[in-house]
Amino acid sequence: MTHRLIALGVFSFLAFFSLFSTAVAEEYRVCRYCGESHDAAGMFGVDLEGDGRRYAPIRHVDVLHIKLDVTPDFTNRTVACVTTIKFVPLREPLRELRLDAIDLTIDGVRGSAEISDFSSTKKDVTIAFSEPIPVGEEAFVEITHHNQPTGGFYFRTPEMGYPADDIHCWTQGESHFARQWFPCFDYPNERSTTEVICRVPEAMSVVSNGKMLSNEVDPKSGLRVVHWLHDKPHVNYLICLVAGNLEKLEKMAGDVPLGFYTQPSWKEHAENAFSDTVDIMNFFQEEIGVAYPWPKYDQVTIADFLAGGMENTTITTLTDRTIYSSETENVKTSHSLDAHELAHQWFGDYVTCVDWSHLWLNEGFATYYTHLYEGHKSGRDAMLYRLYGDANRRILTQTKDTRPIVWNEYKNSGQQFDYRAYPKGSWVLHMLRDRLGEDLFRECVKTYLERNALKSVATPALQSTIEEVSGRSFDQFFDQWVYHARFPDIKISYRWLPNEKLAHLTLEQTQEVNDDVLLYAFPATFRFDGKNGSVTKTFTADGKKHEWFVPLDEKPEVVRFDPNFALLARVTFDKPNEMLLAQLKNQDDMVGRLRAIEQLEKKKSDAVVAALADALQNDSFYGVRIEAADALKKIHSDKAFDALLASTEQSDARVRLDVIKALGGFYRPKKVNDFVEMVRSEANPAIQSAMVRSLGKYHDQEVDRLLQELLKSESFRNELLNAAVAAINARRDSDMAGALMATIESRRDAFTTSGLASALSTLARISENEDDTSAQRKLLLDQLSDLRSPVREGALRALGLLGDAEALAVLETFAESANEKNAEEAAKKAIEELRSDKPAAPRELTELRKLIDDLKKRNNQLTEDLETLKKKVEAKD
């Protein structure tokens, strides 16, 4: 009977699966590189046909204007559209027009020229004309179509698990996703003006590119019809439409109207994410020297957005995670994301890369101008700290990558959205700014934008502008930094010659030089700090090894290489402790202090710990205090732990958070009660969350109680609930399975999408050695009908972790799905887990684990009872 019921349940599920699987969007993929903690490339990528190098496609027509008349169906998650494309043939008469179009149902085609036939495939639409359209003659085609998009156009509806009041839909074009909801020439070497008409239920709002021409209710259909026009040419992937229940905040930056739209659920906190936009706009217009080129600037939040943000012309779409509560103090802020996407309105929208091999012209500029704004907002040290993080954590770790910034051998356009386009591109601009000087750099950028306004360009357009404005050749610079891979590895040695009063320096480039990686030429600057002042010397390093002698009046206390932090290089410069300690104390040289910490963390002496503890408590810049905390964690001694514990009251929440994370790197069971109390007394939920996650290594009654409480807690985005799940996952404590299951069942809507997926995996991990996992299996199978792909994929992965073979039939169905690539991969991996030859944990071992856990808990309780009794006796005495 049991097997029959299971079979019936599986059959019912499979029937449901067949109804919705083709409509589910592949939309929650690898995050676009956005300058935060994740560097994964590929977010906006599309697999391209053929092998070899990639070039911009030939344009047979000049697209003049695209008009989209769109009616989204929120119930069925479908799109009906009439696309009108106005164009003129180039070079030769046009016999047929081919447009990119993925899985569109074409209902009809008409045009200004007589059409003899049209055909469509899964990839394109081809329209044949009875007579060739002459070169230069303006023509149009009007295509009526509909589909249930699997990308490019997305819905967020109650049926998908989102609040009914927050219903919305939105589009994403970059890199080649516009073709998934309307026919077009889908490549950035084509530009046109655009027009969007959208028909939605009366209570909804519609936001799109350019100016709103009208907003009225159609008396026949009862639908709200909103008409937008963007009257300056931009590339196809920047066309954007957002419609739904939206709340709007408004401001002005000079004469530029600013709008911030968000879902009603986030309205209370929306101002936090919008607070810097006016200042960013004003700073960019002054720094760039080119006025904001569009009629307005809107930002719209999206539930479960694919990335951090997308710089559609005049309308940036943002993750709703950009909204945060004020309780987090300065731990969370939106100004970097805000600045990055706004910078794109000049770099990427006004002037656009002609193909993806030159993506750094979009992303490198946006990243660097984000750093420049950081300097404007918080001082030069803040800007340099961002560049330091980019270099040390994102670029200099890529020692084996032989791809240059400009590279056209990619298989998928998403391969270009990585560290080369973003932080390395930013660093190239930083080095150019140092070589040219701030004023000349600003003039070069201004000229580059003005000369290429409303055009799609390649890297030579930037280089030629810089050379013309500066009067200098930059062939070698672009050759080594942009057209070749990597960065220099530099080894420096210093020796003081007291009799001659000379500083003896050697510099050697140690990277492997080959066809992909050059021997670099760069200015090598040294600063010598002594009791009576500083001396700076700059040499040209263009060979394998150099030796220099510098006469000085006194022995320097500190020798610094690249004191202005203007060279992207991996530098080895070993120094004695006394020099490093002196360098750490120089409050005028923030990067020097960071460099000192890099070496001191390897020393591990008590004197070093004391110096780092002093820096953690007293340094003038928050970033140095953060790096000092991280160094103490790496030293990992008792005194390092004590220094961190003494710093938990840091006034700067960013430092306090890092101290808590550093403490979490230690195992100190005797301090568990203190840690639990810190969680309870801390008011900042971001810091509370970090501490809760660190408790996952402790099996303790107080931790048990805390985690049970947090499973029922309420916090912004339920951050504390998610942290509790992470701690439970780390503990692998099967005794928490019941509480976690109850939380998933009773508070399912309280989880974020990613939080629910994590909870499912956690439930499976802590239950895998249980004798009876039927309840867990049923719960996980129920999640497979969720319309959010991360939840389904999380449930599929969890079924593999759970190890329950009775889920195989369902997993095999997903493994054979051709409509959801990621679900298919998750199912195949889960099946592999289930069918693997790994031995299952014997029942005796499982029972022994439970017994040990039980004995631990009883021992803790006896210890607690004994302590209570002792206090009572002492009180009577």
From TrEMBL:
It is an enzyme of class 3 (hydrolase). Residues 65-238 form the Aminopeptidase N-like N-terminal domain. It holds the Pfam family HEAT_2. Its cofactor is Zn(2+). It comes from the Bacteria. Its EC number is 3.4.11.2. It catalyses: Release of an N-terminal amino acid, Xaa-|-Yaa- from a peptide, amide or arylamide. Xaa is preferably Ala, but may be most amino acids including Pro (slow action). When a terminal hydrophobic residue is followed by a prolyl residue, the two may be released as an intact Xaa-Pro dipeptide. GO terms for cellular component: cytoplasm; extracellular space; membrane. One of its GO terms (molecular function) is metalloaminopeptidase activity. Residues 274-481 form the Peptidase M1 membrane alanine aminopeptidase domain. Residues 817-872 form a coiled coil. One of its GO terms (biological process) is proteolysis. CDD domains: M1_APN_like. SUPFAM superfamilies: ARM repeat (SSF48371), Leukotriene A4 hydrolase N-terminal domain (SSF63737), Metalloproteases ('zincins'), catalytic domain (SSF55486). Keywords: Aminopeptidase, Coiled coil, Hydrolase, Metal-binding, Metalloprotease, Protease, Zinc. PANTHER family: PROTEASE M1 ZINC METALLOPROTEASE (PTHR11533), PUROMYCIN-SENSITIVE AMINOPEPTIDASE-RELATED (PTHR11533:SF174). Belongs to the peptidase M1 family. This is Aminopeptidase N. The lineage of its organism: Bacteria, Pseudomonadati, Planctomycetota, Planctomycetia, Pirellulales.
